[in-house]
Design a protein that fits this description.
about 30% strand, alpha/beta, ten-stranded parallel beta sheet, 39 strands
């Protein structure tokens, strides 16, 4: 399907500079531009590519000043990155959705399956499960007994939803992710450890997306809760009884220990670790590899272990690199002081 620069500008509220009749039918990175493709430029590091790109249309920010003329058609917008996301969503919406149940799928007679659902080969739907309209369940996915899945969800191959868990509408779960495995609960005794049964569930609200090979554990009692709009990357561990607030996002390899409460609109970089029973306030931004031992008030940007303001953190790191020299100087000063005392 082709779209003209004029049509695209109208859809995203942009202004055309160049040929408004230029058409595109694909996307490309600006450094790999080709005729018939649309690209975008939001990072100044890539600005030099715009002068030679072969892409037919490029989205750029309104405030971007170019050093010389370009041959491509430009569409100026307030936020090029945000606008290309909208266009990609539009492009994705035109792809036909799979429908129908593969004869090799295993579906319990007591399960309820909605309209226009796709269930792939060797997917398994347990007793009493409910699958909403328009949901797509890819091959080898396992939906446990009494699981509830809302409308227009997508579960990619080899996802596993344990018994009793609940998913809202428009939830996407990528391959290999496990929702509702037992929380890590063991009580020490004289001979080892007694397992504490994990009798709760996981509740995932609307418009959540969870990356590949992420684990969200069921609660000991009650529910582990992922609020609406949350986006989790690949390889994240969410422990039992955790609650993640609305529209919070986390990068890969984040680990959240049990019973931690995380506020809304937080952003965690890769490999952030949160200790158990912590409370993290709304709009907390944690840099990569931050280690959080306890509570944090909201509306802060922090980094490090324990977390501190970025300016203080980088100053501390500069001092840390000089510690061997400082130690040597202190040792020599102590020797001098002792010699002076002896005199």
């Amino acid at each position: 399907m082709e779209f003209s620069a004029k049509q695209i500008a109208s859809f995203i509220g942009g202004k055309v500079e160049g040929d408004e009749n230029a058409t595109v039918n694909s996307f490309a990175k600006i450094e790999e531009g080709k005729k018939g493709a649309i690209s975008f430029l939001s990072n100044p590091k890539y600005q030099h590519y715009i002068y030679d790109t072969e892409s037919s249309i490029v989205l750029i920010d309104n405030n971007l000043k170019l050093d010389k003329p370009v041959t491509t058609t430009l569409i100026r917008v307030d936020n090029a990155y945000e606008c290309v996301a909208k266009l990609l969503q539009l492009y994705e919406s035109y792809k036909p959705k799979k429908k129908g149940v593969d004869p090799l799928a295993c579906i319990s007679q007591t399960a309820k399956v909605g309209n226009d659902v796709y269930i792939g080969a060797f997917a398994c739907i347990g007793d009493g499960a409910v699958i909403g309209d328009g949901t797509q369940i890819y091959p080898h996915a396992v939906i446990g007994d009494n699981v509830e899945i809302g409308n227009n969800c997508t579960l990619y191959p080899n996802t596993t939803i344990y018994q009793g868990c609940k998913l809202g509408n428009n939830v996407t779960i990528h391959a290999g992710t496990v929702i509702g495995a037992d929380g890590f609960g063991f009580a020490p005794n004289t001979e080892g450890y007694d397992k504490i049964p994990q009798i709760g569930i996981v509740t995932i609200e609307d418009n959540v997306e969870i990356g590949a090979n992420t684990c969200v554990d069921r609660s000991t009692m009650g529910s582990t809760i992922i609020r609406k709009g949350v986006k989790l990357d690949n390889l994240i561990q969410v422990a039992h009884n955790v609650e993640i607030g609305e529209n919070t996002v986390m990068s890969a390899q984040v680990g959240i220990a049990g019973s931690t409460k995380i506020g809304s609109w937080c952003m965690f970089g890769g490999q952030v670790g949160i200790a158990g029973h912590s409370n993290i306030g709304d709009k907390t931004f944690l840099g990569a590899q931050s280690g959080v031992p306890g509570n944090i008030k909201g509306n802060q940007t922090l980094i490090g272990t324990p977390p501190m303001e970025p300016k203080a953190y980088f100053k501390s790191q500069a001092i840390f690199r000089k510690l061997p020299e400082l130690y040597k100087e202190i040792h020599e000063l102590k020797k001098e002081i002792e010699e002076l005392k002896n005199k």
